[in-house]
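Q: Structure tokens for this one, please.
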Amino acid sequence: MTHKAKWLLFSPLGLATIGAGASMVHWAGSLKDQQVPTREWVAAGTVALVVLNAGVSLFGRGVIEKVLHEVRERPQR
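A: Here is the predicted structure, written as tokens:
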């Protein structure tokens, strides 16, 4: 798989995962506001933060692949 293909895969996937994680964080906060048992909203918040951080990691990998693509595709002088 080329660096360009990886970049085009990881960057949008990372952005979508960041959005999902952010929405889940809000959902976990609303569970707390609804006074559900602590165990439930803490578990939901933990999962939400894992998803959010996974999205940041995926997006970061996309940035790395973009840089590698640009470095390797640079015309030789």
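A few notes: The chain has a mean pLDDT of 95. The chain has one domain: 3-73.
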